[in-house]
Amino acid sequence: MKILVAAKRVVDYNVKVRVRSDHSGVETANVKMSMNPFDEIAVEEAIRFKEAGHGDEVVVASIGPRQCEEVLRTALAMGADRGVLVRSDAALEPLAVARLLGVLAEREKSDLILLGKQAIDDDANQTGQMLAALLGWAQGTFACRLEAVQDGLRVTREIDGGLETLFMPLPAVVTADLRLNEPRYPKLPNIMKAKKKPLETLDGDSLGVDISPRLHTLRVSAPEPRKGGVRVTDVAELVDRLRNEAKVL
Ligand code: AMP
């Protein structure tokens, strides 16, 4: 089984994001960037699949500027075999990413594509679903358990009412939820070894894919700062304030 994993470079989850002064987006200059946390989980799952004897090769792809190489090197240090950087300086929407990943999957003859359930920068939660639809493959989104079974996969998904278990034949697209696994930290010797692992660079414009934007961002603004709470002395005061100040009763 050939596994392709998609890993996005995003603002590190520990960074408190700031909106640009012109309200065109979030400030990314001089900000720590890392692999999207859900993608780390997807990479970990692919490596565990291979370690359990279900996968032959784990290829990790990242789409974006040259600096996405850092994300790929992290995935290689975790244990992926090969990296592919699809270079593009354009602002890519989920449909464009799905189209590019679709071309890569066909080129790599992938049997399974693992993605994060969402990227923590735009919170779109669309790419995996679009990719499966474009390829006409089975999809298991928000996976919290993944098992290789006869002729396919058993995917346990987190849904509002609990857990749903699906069987799907390969090829398939699976998106990773938080509880799928706990990603490993790359060890120093593996970080050194990862520097020698193959990393191919493709020009995003040369893959024959329409990546033109379909959305126009009007304005990005930070949420209103929360007002401080009020401590009430008893239930009667609470009810009074809800009725006469907040006017919600
Ligand atoms: P989204 O639909 O934007 O929330 O992203 C869902 C998942 O798609 C992410 O967790 C990644 O696995 C993948 N993805 C999105 N954008 C990229 C990108 N530029 N490069 C690689 N993978 C991506």
Provide key terms for this protein.
249 residues, alpha/beta, Rossmann fold, 6 helices, 27% helix, globular, binds adenosine monophosphate
Give the helix/strand layout.
Blueprint: E1 2-6, E2 9-11, E3 33-35, H1 37-51, E4 57-64, H2 68-78, E5 82-87, H3 94-108, E6 112-116, H4 127-135, E7 138-149, E8 152-159, E9 162-169, E10 172-176, H5 188-194, E11 199-203, H6 235-244
Parallel strand pairs: 1-4, 1-6, 4-5, 5-11, 6-10, 7-10
Antiparallel strand pairs: 2-3, 7-8, 8-9
Helix pairs in contact: 2-5, 3-4
Bound molecules: adenosine monophosphate (AMP).
**Sequence stretches where pLDDT stays below 50 over 5 or more residues:** none
Mean pLDDT: 96
| H/I helix tally | 6
Count of the domains:
1
* Overall SS class: alpha/beta
H/E series, N to C? EEEHEHEHEHEEEEHEH
Largest sheet: 9 strands, mixed
CATH superfamily: HUPs
Helix content: 25-40%
The molecules bound to the chains, other than polymers, are:
adenosine monophosphate
Shape: globular
Number of DSSP E strands: 11
> What is the percentage of strand-forming residues?
25-35%
Label the CATH architecture. 3-Layer(aba) Sandwich
